[in-house]
Amino acid sequence: MKIITRYMLRHFFPIFSVALFAIVGLYLIIDFFEKVDNLLEKQVPAADILSYFFLKVPFIVSQGIPMASLLGSLVALGILKRNRELIALETAGIKATSYVYPILLTALGLSFVHFLTDETLARNMNQRAQQIWQKQVLNQKAPLSWGHENVWYHGQNAIYQIHLYNKEEETLEKVSLFFLSPPFELSGRLDAKRIRWSDNQWIAENGLILRFNGSNVEQ
Q1: Which of 108, 117, 156, 171 could be bridged to 62 by S-S, CB 3.0 to 4.6 A?
Q2: Domain coordinates of the chain in residue numbers?
Q3: What is the per-residue pLDDT across 9-42, written as a single tens digit (0 to 9) for each?
Q4: How buried is residue 194: exposed, middle or buried, by Cβ count under 10 Å (0-12/13-18/19+)?
Q5: Is residue 107 a contact partner of residue 69, using CB atoms and an 8 Å limit?
Q6: Exposure of 141 in the CB half-sphere (CA atoms within 13 A)
């Protein structure tokens, strides 16, 4: 590894680690104070309370990686610029790509880690945390099960965004449909809290339809 690469990463990773730790800590503190009354009211065992918050940590980490990466990059380069080290590098004939690429490649690697964590460990553990909440606090005997989350699908003349699919109730939760007209222009949009299948047709609940006609928008 080149000296410049090691030097840049030595500035980036401490800031990234502190930012990620702060994001996770703040999230847990806020979440704890928002839900501690409900947990104590339902007399949830201490072991289940600890398990609930512990199981949410991978999800919080996966959500915090992008923000921590951005902060790490900006602050690291800002410190180097403040100390005039970037000017020294340019004076020595070192191109900007030599000290920017290490951070870009590291951010790319972190995005890959974020994707793997979010799609595997974080999702499974977050669902287990939600099961504890539903069983211990909401008193639901059979916790809801989910198949897919945040699905995007490009169908015929429309793009579908499905936030959540409930297998047990066979409903789509928090759905947005973007209707397209040739050549790939947005002609309408449907937002619904829930869409369910009934009598061989989809029925939207608590929805809003917008139709776009040039600069005009109709509800």
Answers
A1: 117
A2: 3-136, 148-218
A3: 888 999 999 999 999 999 999 999 988 888 888 8
A4: middle
A5: yes
A6: 0
Amino acid at 22: A
How far is 118 from 174, CA to CA, in rounded Å?
A: 20
Cα–Cα distance for residue pair 166/138, rounded to 1 Å: 17
Lookup: tokens for 179: 């209707």
Threshold 0.85, pTM exceeds: no
Place of tokens 């072991």: 47
Tokens 């401490």 map to which residue? 14
Tokens of 188: 């309408």
CB 157 within 8 A of CB 181: yes
Continuous segment of H or E residues that includes residue 189:
strand 185-198
Q: For residue 194, which of 208, 180, 211 has the smallest C-alpha distance?
A: 208
